[in-house]
């Protein structure tokens, strides 16, 4: 159905986005009269409808948007605005081929949509408001979509829990393996304890047999009273000699202690002697290294002295080089003067040759004039120091 809005004076373009929408309003001449941004919320859409109400009746303020449906479209239709859905590809082609609103941006796209609506509104079809059943069905569909989305989130959470359960199961498996290993270790230790208890029982039976033998021995010892009296006397004798033995034992222990101390001292002296020998060897090595260091120090001092002499020579050479450079500059100036003098001398030599040639010509002329004519001798004029007068007199004589 064509859009019949001949009386429309403003045209609105909305660049739809997920969170914020750019809005541009142009008049019939294409001039931007309003440009702003709203949030994708009930408050933002209410602000849009309120600002568009300033431009006139909602039925006279068409709105172009790149979506055929949605919450924003529904609220604009309910407010009475003609909503014209436009295709994004058409807007892109229009932007590239017909108009240009600077660099690409949300505000620029909204301006392009508004201009597209202004120039082509008679060719576009508005969106038809949904009926009550359709709105109810769409709300139900949206609720189901939200339910599906929530179910998807729950499924993701369940997958995460399943993964966690799998991880926990793997950890339980590891713990079961460790527990099995611990049980095996306990079984081995129980077997060892059983073996030890069996050995102890064997030893207890042996001890019981030993006790029986001791009882038999005591019975036999009771029969040997005489022997016991003799043993008592022998023990008294041994006790009387025990003091002597103890004193001897003390002396022996002191001797053993002194012998151990002496051996320890001998070992310490031997180790100290070895350490002294090693220290002497190390000291010899250190003395050799010190000698080498002294020689190296002497060489370094000699090198240092040579370096200082070389630096002095270098400084003298630099000073001499400076003098030579200054002399060269002076010689270059003198060379220029000599070249000029040589050029002047060359010019003077050429002039001298010309003068000699002129003198030769004059002499030849003088010889020619001095030859006699008709047997008469003609005297040549003599040069006089008086200059011009002498020359005049000579000319008169010649005549």
What descriptors fit this protein?
399 residues; alpha/beta; Nucleotidyltransferase, domain 5; 5 strands; 73% helix
Describe this structure in words.
- The protein is of the alpha/beta class.
- The chain has a domain at 10-129: Ribonuclease H-like superfamily/Ribonuclease H (Nucleotidyltransferase, domain 5, 2-Layer Sandwich).
- The chain contains seven helices and five strands.
- It has a five-stranded mixed β-sheet.
- The longest helix has 146 residues, at 225-370.
- The radius of gyration is 69 Å and the shape is flat.
- The relative contact order is 0.04.
Approximately how much beta-strand content do the residues carry?
Answer: 5-15%
Which oligomerization state do the chains in this entry correspond to? single chain
Q: Report the sheet with the most strands, covering strand number, pairing sense and barrel closure.
A: 5 strands, mixed
By CATH, the superfamily of the domain at 10-129 comes out as: Ribonuclease H-like superfamily/Ribonuclease H
Number of helices: 7
In N-to-C order, the SSE pattern is EEEHEHEHHHHH
Shape type: flat
Q: What is the average per-residue confidence, as pLDDT, rounded to a whole number?
A: 79
Going by CATH, the architecture of the domain at 10-129 would be: 2-Layer Sandwich
Rg, Å, rounded: 69 Å
Report the CATH topology name of the domain at 10-129.
Nucleotidyltransferase, domain 5
What's the number of extended β-strand segments?
5
């Amino acid at each position: 159905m064509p859009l019949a809005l001949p009386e429309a004076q403003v045209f609105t373009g909305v660049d739809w986005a997920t969170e914020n929408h750019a809005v541009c309003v142009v008049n019939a001449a294409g001039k931007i009269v309003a440009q702003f941004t709203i949030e994708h919320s009930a408050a933002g859409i209410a602000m849009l409808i309120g600002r568009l109400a300033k431009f006139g009746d909602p039925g006279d303020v068409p709105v172009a948007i790149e979506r055929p449906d949605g919450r924003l479209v529904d609220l604009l239709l309910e407010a009475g605005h003609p909503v014209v859905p436009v295709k994004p590809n058409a807007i892109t082609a229009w932007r590239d081929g017909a108009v240009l609103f600077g660099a690409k941006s949300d505000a620029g796209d909204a301006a392009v949509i508004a201009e597209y609506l202004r120039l082509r509104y008679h060719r576009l079809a508005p969106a038809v408001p949904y009926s009550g059943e359709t709105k109810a069905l769409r709300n139900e569909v949206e609720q189901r979509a939200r339910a599906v989305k929530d179910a998807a989130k729950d499924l993701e959470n369940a997958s995460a829990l399943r993964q966690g359960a799998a991880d926990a199961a793997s950890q339980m498996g590891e713990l079961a393996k460790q527990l099995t290993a611990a049980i095996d270790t306990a079984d081995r230790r129980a077997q060892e304890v059983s073996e030890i208890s069996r050995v102890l029982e064997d030893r207890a039976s042996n001890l019981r047999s030993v006790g029986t033998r001791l009882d038999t021995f005591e019975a036999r010892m009771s029969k040997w009273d005489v022997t016991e009296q003799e043993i008592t006397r022998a023990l008294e004798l041994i006790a009387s000699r025990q003091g002597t033995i103890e004193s001897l034992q003390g002396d022996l222990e002191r001797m053993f202690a002194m012998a151990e101390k002496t051996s320890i001292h001998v070992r310490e002296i031997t180790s100290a002697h070895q350490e002294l020998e090693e220290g002497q060897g190390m000291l010899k090595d250190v003395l050799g290294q010190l000698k080498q260091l002294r020689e190296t120090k002497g060489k370094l001092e000699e090198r240092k002295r040579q370096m200082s002499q070389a630096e002095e020579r270098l400084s003298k050479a630099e000073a001499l080089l400076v003098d030579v450079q200054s002399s060269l500059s002076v010689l270059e100036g003198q060379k220029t003067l000599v070249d000029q003098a040589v050029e002047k001398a060359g010019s003077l030599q050429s002039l001298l040759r010309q003068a000699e040639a002129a003198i030769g010509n004059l002499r030849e002329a003088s010889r020619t004039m001095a030859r006699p004519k008709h047997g008469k001798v003609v005297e040549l004029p003599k040069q006089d120091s008086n200059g011009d007068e002498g020359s005049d007199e000579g000319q008169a004589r010649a005549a």
